[in-house]
């Protein structure tokens, strides 16, 4: 069955990019491309031309979620698969492919009308990624993609069917706690590239709850946490460790209302046959205290 293999990139509409400066550059050390198109800011975190696009807008919203496949044959097979499922998939224009800096691109709508895309062969820059603040290491990307996202959906059963049957994702595990019922899915060794949840904790149907970036060493996370405290960056959750993917992380509030998780040490799934799907009754081993 055709399947996506990575979370490749994200796009956001923002009303005031200056409000993002501290989190993106002084905490996370992302690199802004100086050749970003007018009205946009493209950001790097590794060898890719860019992983994030921020569009000047009157509103704050997610513009698109970009997935990736590993071959041109997979790209065409997935396009035909989505057509057969009756999903309104379209091949992108040359202008859109140029904007995303990818060789091939398709567009469609996911559950709750979330704008989604699938690309093949994102361009890699011949210049190395240069962090905008001092960091020890790099982000964990490559065959694990950008990181992960968590979306809330109005119909969890329908959403799970879409992500499994249309995009070929596999279930990692579940966490049920308080009012939340979350399912975690993977498409590569990263424990999850996608988590889906019922609307809860202030996140509505079709809205992004958070995206996660993973450092390759714990010192990057610890130093970023110190900078968060020094710069009074608001937190959603304090430093803590998750039950299911074992990641040590913290969550920051963004100007758009969703959160950014920054962590280290996430579990990996290399053998689906050997992996045991579990149900957890709490999302944390320690920490991750809610900041009121």
UniProtKB/TrEMBL annotation:
PROSITE patterns linked to this entry: EXTRADIOL_DIOXYGENAS (PS00082), VOC (PS51819)
Protein name: Biphenyl-2,3-diol 1,2-dioxygenase
UniProt similarity note: Belongs to the extradiol ring-cleavage dioxygenase family.
Keywords, sorted A to Z: Aromatic hydrocarbons catabolism, Dioxygenase, Iron, Metal-binding, Oxidoreductase
The UniProt record lists the keyword Transmembrane: no
InterPro entries: Glyas_Bleomycin-R_OHBP_Dase (IPR029068), Glyas_Fos-R_dOase_dom (IPR004360), VOC_core (IPR037523), Xdiol_ring_cleave_dOase_1/2 (IPR000486)
Gene: bphC
Residue span(s) of domain VOC: 6-121, 145-265
Domain of life the protein comes from: Bacteria
Cofactors: Fe(2+)
Alphabetized Gene3D superfamilies for the sequence: 2,3-Dihydroxybiphenyl 1,2-Dioxygenase, domain 1 (3.10.180.10)
């Amino acid at each position: 069955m055709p399947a996506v293999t990575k979370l490749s990139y994200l796009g956001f509409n923002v009303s005031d990019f200056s409000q993002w400066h501290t989190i993106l550059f002084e905490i996370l050390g992302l690199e802004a491309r100086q050749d970003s198109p007018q009205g946009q800011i493209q950001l790097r975190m590794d060898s890719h031309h860019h992983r994030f696009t921020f569009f000047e807008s009157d509103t704050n919203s997610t513009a698109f979620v970009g997935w990736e496949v590993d071959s041109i044959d997979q790209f065409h097979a997935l396009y035909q698969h989505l057509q057969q499922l009756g999903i309104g998939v379209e091949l992108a224009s040359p202008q859109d492919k140029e904007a995303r800096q990818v060789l091939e691109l398709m567009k469609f709508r996911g559950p709750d009308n979330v704008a989604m895309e699938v690309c093949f062969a994102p361009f890699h820059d011949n210049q190395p990624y240069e962090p905008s603040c001092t960091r020890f290491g790099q982000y964990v990307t490559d065959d694990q993609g950008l990181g992960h996202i968590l979306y809330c959906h109005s119909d969890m059963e329908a959403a799970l069917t879409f992500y499994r049957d249309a995009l070929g994702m596999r279930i990692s595990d579940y966490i049920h706690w308080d009012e939340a019922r979350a399912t975690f899915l993977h498409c590569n060794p990263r424990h999850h590239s996608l988590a889906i949840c019922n609307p809860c904790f202030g996140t509505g149907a079709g809205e992004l709850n958070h995206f996660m970036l993973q450092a390759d060493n714990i010192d990057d996370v610890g130093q970023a946490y110190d900078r968060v405290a020094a710069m009074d960056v608001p937190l959603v959750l304090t430093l803590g460790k998750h039950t299911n993917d074992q990641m040590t992380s913290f969550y920051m509030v963004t100007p758009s209302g969703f959160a950014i998780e920054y962590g280290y040490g996430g579990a990996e799934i290399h053998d689906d046959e050997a992996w045991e799907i579990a149900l957890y009754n709490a999302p944390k081993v320690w920490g991750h205290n809610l900041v009121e």
